[in-house]
């Protein structure tokens, strides 16, 4: 009986500890901080999810199979005009502020299309 009670207490405490259905995700790190600085409040939840999906919030993330780089994993061969409009150049893809501002410029032109799941 003690064993069953111990198992029930352990299982119920695990269930309580992992129930996060109502909790909003907590985003941290340089990419997420830059999203909070540069993206409009109504688009930030979407942008945070994209940053998490694309780079896990690591500004130096680089895809080995393509030229996708930075927080938003923008393709370097297509992103130069967006970096320029952000006051940067695409050699600054590791800079979270530059990458996030360039991604905002791309979003302003093309919407969510560049990041949609195919």
What does the model show?
The chain has 118 residues and is mainly alpha-helical. The chain has one domain. 53% of the residues lie in helices and 3% in strands. It is built from five helices and two strands, in the order αααββαα. It has helices spanning 2-18, 30-38, 44-55, 76-85, 96-110, and strands at 68-69, 74-75. It has a two-stranded antiparallel ribbon with strand order 1-2. Helix 2 (30-38) packs antiparallel against helix 3 (44-55) and helix 4 packs across helix 5. It is globular. 32% of the residues are buried.
Descriptors:
118 residues; mainly alpha; two-stranded antiparallel sheet; 2 strands
How is the secondary structure organized here?
Layout: H1 2-18, H2 30-38, H3 44-55, E1 68-69, E2 74-75, H4 76-85, H5 96-110
Antiparallel strand pairs: 1-2
Helix pairs in contact: 2-3, 2-5, 4-5
Provide a concise account of the structure shown.
With 118 residues, the protein is mostly helical. It is built from 5 helices and 2 strands; from the N terminus they run H-H-H-E-E-H-H. A two-stranded antiparallel ribbon has the order 1-2.
